[in-house]
Amino acid sequence: MADADCKAKLEQHKSQREARKAECAKNPTQCKAERQKHREALKARCEADAGCKAKMEKRRAAREERCAKDPSACEPPRQPWDGTGTAPSAPR
C-alpha cells in the first residue's frame, strides 16, 4: 500500500516537473526571473538563520581555499558546444 502511494506521488511529481519544463520552454525569461527570485528568497532566509549563515560561510571559505590551491577548479564549467563553432541556438 505504502509503495503504491509512493509511486503515485513520484508520478505526480514527474508530471508536474514535465509540465513546468514545457511551460518554461514557452516562456524562458519568466522562468529565469522566477528562479532568480527563488534563489534570492532562499539566500535571504539563510541570512536570517545563524546556523545556515555559518554553514554558508564555512562553504565559502572552503571554496576560496580550494580555488587558491587550484585556480582551474574554480573556472566556470565548459559548455559542450565551446570550441565547436556552433552554439545551441545556431540555425541549422
Description of the molecule:
- The protein has helices at residues 2-26, 28-48, 50-69.
- It contains 3 helices and no strands.
In terms of topology, how is this protein built?
Elements: H1 2-26, H2 28-48, H3 50-69
What is Rg? 20 Å
Number of helices: 3
Q: Determine the mean pLDDT.
A: 84
Q: What structural class is derived from the secondary structure elements?
A: mainly alpha
Order of helices and strands: HHH
> Can you count the beta strands?
0
Proportion of residues in helical segments: over 70%
Low-confidence stretches: none
Tell me the major beta sheet.
none
Question: What oligomeric state best describes the polypeptide chains here?
Answer: single chain
**Overall outline:** extended
Beta-strand level of the residues, as a percent range?
under 5%
Terminal CA distance reads: 50 Å
